[in-house]
Write a structure and sequence with these properties.
24 strands; single chain; about 30% strand
Length: about 425
């Protein structure tokens, strides 16, 4: 093992000794049902606190890649001395067979490279096994693994799928270049020469936890494409949850919460759209995540502008209240974001604008969420409040460019992200 590998192992070996080997999170095959033992897969025997550092919510399925190695590039929000990885077959219909799985640090400042930092490549195990079968409708969490994981760094999580395991659970819109080796098990390849194809989706990997000395917990951002990052620059990590993580990293160590992006482009609050509805996937994408202290909800625009459209503001607010009830039952504080303008978009009508404004009035009026992030007020054009400011509009009059994403994140009061649910 290279010297850096020996140092990383020594830092965290004691912390992860005696950890639980494997947690199987029971979910409904299509909609992500109630999790088992959230927050505690692989709980360490020595002092330390597991925190969610990265998330990608399952958004649907893609064709399987039999015989391939899939190298997913994921970015941490906070760092630690050990790591564990969540692998999902939640939306699959057949058992998922993994022949090998690895994690490593990506070469710095090279988001489009499959190369790993020398000495950081580690084999992931599940219950002590390098090969595993994940039942349809389930997630698994890897054994804790000693590795020095920096904050704001890219990790390479590579999975080898030796055969056809049926529809692959994936996150379609990663806004990140990921890599494919189509000719066998190259999971442990450091140089990356075998990765000759790319994809802009994340396959099977839906979470990364890290072990930290402090326990400020994590923040989950539940949303649609506005949270998923549509409109922002690919391979640049400029979604508003990325910027929120940057702001939190500037705080004292005891307040540096991890940020988990549970956005799914096309997602709806009340109905299935792109993937399960926010209500249906809530347990899997929020409550099962590690160390969650705060939830930020930005959902509803696709319900208003979709087909069929939601014409009753009270129905959306009732759905918000139900999410808050479920979060409060787990001691999670909930921040609600107002729905942002989409005037000029093809789905906009005067009637839908009235629904949007009515929902926002109810959110601002209090009594729904523990706190409010008034995203609408931040990004709307003062002269035409049904539209986005031109400086934040990538051109489709719905999503946000990098400047708009930054404005959203910078408007969040960080004091609203701490403390218990009311």
């Amino acid at each position: 093992m290279a010297e850096v590998g020996r140092r990383d192992a020594c830092r965290a070996l004691t912390a992860v000794a005696g950890a639980l080997a494997l947690t199987m999170l029971g979910t409904a095959a299509a909609h992500g049902g109630p999790p088992a033992a959230p927050d505690r897969p692989g709980a360490p025997a020595a002092p330390g606190h597991w925190t969610g550092s990265w998330e990608a919510a399952a958004s649907g399925t893609a064709a399987p890649l039999p015989g391939a190695s899939i190298r997913n590039v994921v970015r941490t929000s906070v760092g630690g001395t050990a790591v564990r990885v969540r692998v999902s077959n939640r939306l699959g219909t057949l058992p998922l067979v993994l022949g090998a799985a690895t994690v490593a640090r990506q070469r710095p400042n090279a988001p489009k490279s499959p190369k790993a930092v020398s000495g950081t490549m580690r084999a992931l195990t599940f219950g002590g096994r390098k090969k595993i079968t994940v039942p349809a409708g389930r997630d698994v969490v890897s054994d804790p693994l000693p590795l020095n994981v920096p904050a704001a760094a890219n990790l390479l999580v590579t999975l080898h799928t030796p055969g056809d395991s049926g529809p692959a659970t994936y996150h379609r819109d990663a806004l990140q270049t990921n890599f494919l080796a189509l000719d066998g098990n190259r999971a442990a390849e450091v140089g990356g020469a075998g990765y000759r194809a790319t994809t802009t989706s994340w396959y099977y990997v839906t979470g990364v936890d890290v072990l930290r000395p402090q326990a400020p917990g994590s923040v989950v951002a539940l949303g649609d494409s506005l949270t998923d990052g549509s409109g922002s620059t690919p391979n640049a990590n400029r979604r508003w949850p990325d910027r929120l993580a940057e702001r939190l990293r500037a705080l004292p160590p005891g307040r540096r919460q991890g940020v988990l992006n549970a956005g799914v482009a096309g997602n709806r609050l009340l109905r299935e759209g792109r993937g399960p509805s926010a209500s249906a996937r809530f347990d899997a994408d929020v409550l099962s995540r590690t160390g969650v202290r705060t939830l930020i909800v930005l959902e509803g625009v696709n319900d208003i502008k979709g087909t069929p459209d939601q014409t009753d503001p009270a129905a959306l607010v009732a759905a918000y209240r139900e999410l808050v009830r479920r979060a409060h039952a787990r001691g999670i504080r909930v921040v609600g974001a107002t729905i942002t303008p989409f005037g000029g978009h093809g789905g906009h009508t005067a009637a839908r604008e009235r629904v949007r404004r009515a929902v926002n009035r109810l959110i601002r009026g209090g009594g729904v969420f523990d706190a409010v992030a008034d995203f609408d007020a931040v990004v709307r054009d003062p002269s035409r409040p049904d539209r986005l400011r031109a400086a934040y509009d990538p051109g489709d009059h719905l999503h946000f460019n990098d400047a708009g994403m930054r404005a959203l994140a910078d408007s969040i009061d960080l004091m609203d992200l701490a403390g218990p649910a009311r």
